[in-house]
Here is the input.
Amino acid sequence: MPKAIKTKKSEETRRRIFDSALALFRKRGFDETTMRDIASEADVALGAAYYYFDSKDAIVMAFYQRTQDELVPLVTEALSHTHSFKQRLAAVIRIKLDYCAPNRRLMAALATHIDPRHPLSPFSEQTRAIRDADTHFFQRALEGSDVRVSEDLALHLPRLLWLYQMGLLLFWVYDRSPRQWRTTQLFEKTLSIVTKLVRFSSFPLLRPVRKTVAELLELIYGSQETSEALA
Amino acid sequence: MPKAIKTKKSEETRRRIFDSALALFRKRGFDETTMRDIASEADVALGAAYYYFDSKDAIVMAFYQRTQDELVPLVTEALSHTHSFKQRLAAVIRIKLDYCAPNRRLMAALATHIDPRHPLSPFSEQTRAIRDADTHFFQRALEGSDVRVSEDLALHLPRLLWLYQMGLLLFWVYDRSPRQWRTTQLFEKTLSIVTKLVRFSSFPLLRPVRKTVAELLELIYGSQETSEALA
DNA sequence: CAATGAAGTTGAACACGTTCAAAAGGAGGA
DNA sequence: TCCTCCTTTTGAACGTGTTCAACTTCATTG
Here is the structure.
């Protein structure tokens, strides 16, 4: 990875490589695009592509990062319009889906990675910053809304909502129905359910259930932290 | 793929390649083992490995198949001992975990694939036969047990239990805690919950909930069938 | 006993992602 | 002008999974 780059020229080159890569990924797909294609499209030698990006995957990582950066203002804007939790949750997810729509094919190639040790996995250490920022969207959707979240779930609920969104995204990525109408359906139906569950979740009566869920999640997330520490 | 093979010699060679591959996968891991290593270990030329197996992945597929075949009698035996649903469910899952234990590292390399289009994915068309056989285990666990399953869930419940088991397996595969005690904990805690949920699920009062769940599952599985048809 | 042809075997060759030593460029100073 | 040093650029080379045309083996047949 090149260190802090100042010179105009090299920034230009890096951008050209990145843009060429993305254009090719979109047109032909990730696996079908070779690093030689990318370099040639960007009018540089093969080695130059590797001078600016550690690997083919690193280009994708840059893409993840840019996506996340560009989503922030969009989500912020959307969240300023309503206090209804359901609408806020829907907005966060819909913005992401819409934004990703042109890259659906590319994302399908990437969603392959579930292994938390794979850099591109949504569960990896390398994507942690992006994941945290993403989870924060859901925290904000909750905080400014009309639902009250009981303390013992405050930590976990954003993560659960993030997981819900990842599942939806995964379904969408592989959804071959015309215009992905199945995803739309699944989204609508599950959104109501999730919203209701979130509302119910803070009922005093459900305290023992919350405790059980919290225990489970600590087991699961605790394990992740351990493996990250060991990695 | 070679057609029906009868000659002893070739069967011997195939087995030698398969065994060498598995030994190396276990010792060094999947990615770290090359086809040249396998061929050399089996004392054949590189091409011979490809004569018997279409690809490196195909060796893994053969491993999946053998695993499934060998599990059948073990599960059958275990299911003959009790009618308690909880114990039956636990037995099916525990047998699988125990059986897979020596291959945990190999399975971690494989669990990478979530893309239903990837041949090795547990959701792919290529693994359908194995998946169906596997799902059948849970159907049997239900059928011979002390729980009554309402008709509208009879179709889906085995699939849901299979999914539960896949999640557990996934967790196990990446569980770095000593002797995977976290998985054990997760197993115990979730088993109770799942068992209770299955019991509750047939309460007459919950009919509308069942209907909603069934609708969702049909949406999800229906989509899969569509994409398979298009594939 | 050849001759035939299917089954089995070989290793060179290909395209890929990636590495790396070497060359080229260019900014700043003597 | 020339030297120095860092950044940028180059393309050959490596190891990988995979393909393939050529070769060998060997049971069956005329």
Summary: DSSP finds eleven helices and no strands in chain B. Chain B has two domains: 1-53, 57-230.
